[in-house]
Amino acid sequence: MASNEKFNFAQNVAEALADSQLRANFRFATDTLIQRRGTVFASPEETEFLRDVGSCMKKDVLANLPELLERFEEQCTKNGIIVHWAETAKDANEQILSILESHSATKVVKGKSMASEEIHLNSYLEEHGKEIVETDFGEFIIQLCNEPPSHIIVPAVHKNRIQIAEVLAEHIEDMEYTEDVDVMLENVRSILRDHFKTADAGISGVNFGIVETGTLCLVENEGNGRMCTTVPPLHIALMGIEKLIENVEDIPAIYRLLCGSATGQRITTYFNMISGPRKTGERDGPKEVHLVLLDNGRSKIMNDPQLGDVLKCIRCGTCLNHCPVFTRIGGHAYGSTYPGPIGEILVPQIEGLNPKGAIATASSLCDACAEACPVRIPIPELIRRMRDESYGNADPSKVALSGYKRSCVESMVWKGWKWSQTCPTMNKMMLKGLALFGKWIPVVGPLRAWMSVRSKPQFGKNSLKDLAKKEGLRHE
């Protein structure tokens, strides 16, 4: 499902750069997150060891994913969890709606879930008459504003304290304006408490699924995830098929990497492990637990030896914080669920290169994202692959709508350039021509965009080879 039918990346970037408050909000937030991460990962030796462990762990999971998924389903079923398979976003939405309808559920409380954002679950359920209440504080704020999240971890990072205070005062009846963060949090918690009590169902994401025990793990700081999954009588979990961890003993390392990279914590306030519905004699928990396993293009991605690395992602968002482009244009400019470096390589594969291939241009290829990635995804290499796919240069091309940027004129220009560089006579003629007529080259077509941010090159009268010959340098 496309996240934005009318997508103009260049226009989005221009609007974001013109918003000085937006840039200031992102700069402050990402700098803070980077500083916290540096404090947690203060030991280079320990950090690199953990990254090696995390990378190998996820690589092994992907190498054996079909088998592990079958084992996971079997164990979940033994635990009383009802498992559903969704090949596409449409399938996932329809299955979740069907589960809600079968329980006559009309009101849903929802924990933070990027997978649900990926399939646009909220809008789908609302179109079918369901009331959806986001319970994560950041998600709650952007739901009031009818905005998508701007960051994988901090959905409302594009707003500062004053802007959030204005949103709450404007959209919530009888709430007085206050810039006191603790008061704002307490007011929102009071509102959500009533929603938890009256909800017919709770929907959550899944950070890790443990194959060995059939356990669903949720990582959070606010407690809303625990409320969504224990108070309502029905719990529906949505999980990407790549989110598996094979054994319980593997959790500490990957959990440490996620917490440290995402929020700069050694552990989060809550780590929920759900292994089934409420059992006889237990005082809380849902009567039914459903798990929807989402593919949505992941199987195809996994089958590419290079592109499959993107599925190692644990959704920590640290590549966003370290990206010099993201911190200046923010998440909304990408027009996608997953912004920043990880979005540049994941979204075009899920939604197609046209038009989402344009976001792969939002990188300086400085390698900051790769250096920070806790599971060692070679993000810059994959960004270059997306750019090659956009022109149909990858061999073989495997991303939907590959080659959408290819043009006959540009292909001819590059072939001419290649010819001029491999044929000495042509190279000499080209250099002489540029020396005589280069200053009159018209700035039209692709050159117009290229020259809009660059000075027009000045061509010398003599080539480097001529100058070397004049100086008497030997050609060796």
Chart the SSEs and their pairings.
Blueprint: H1 9-17, H2 20-40, H3 44-63, H4 65-78, E1 81-86, H5 89-102, E2 107-110, H6 114-118, H7 121-127, E3 131-134, H8 137-145, H9 161-171, H10 181-198, E4 201-204, E5 208-210, E6 215-220, H11 224-230, E7 234-240, E8 244-245, H12 251-263, E9 270-274, E10 288-294, H13 298-302, H14 318-322, H15 326-329, H16 340-351, H17 353-356, H18 368-372, H19 379-390, H20 408-422, H21 424-437, H22 446-451, H23 464-470
Parallel strand pairs: 1-10, 2-3, 2-4, 4-7, 5-8, 7-10
Antiparallel strand pairs: 5-6, 6-9
Helix pairs in contact: 2-12, 3-12, 16-19, 20-21
Would you mind describing this structure in some detail?
With 476 residues, the protein is of the alpha/beta class. It is built from 23 helices and ten strands. The protein has helices at 9-17, 20-40, 44-63, 65-78, 89-102, 114-118, 121-127, 137-145, 161-171, 181-198, 224-230, 251-263, 298-302, 318-322, 326-329, 340-351, 353-356, 368-372, 379-390, 408-422, 424-437, 446-451, 464-470; strands at residues 81-86, 107-110, 131-134, 201-204, 208-210, 215-220, 234-240, 244-245, 270-274, 288-294. A six-stranded parallel beta sheet has the order 1-10-7-4-2-3, with helices on both faces. Strand 5 (208-210) and strand 6 (215-220) form a beta hairpin. Helix 2 packs antiparallel against helix 12 (251-263). The longest helix is centred in the N-terminal third of the chain and has 21 residues, at 20-40. It is elongated. The termini are far apart.
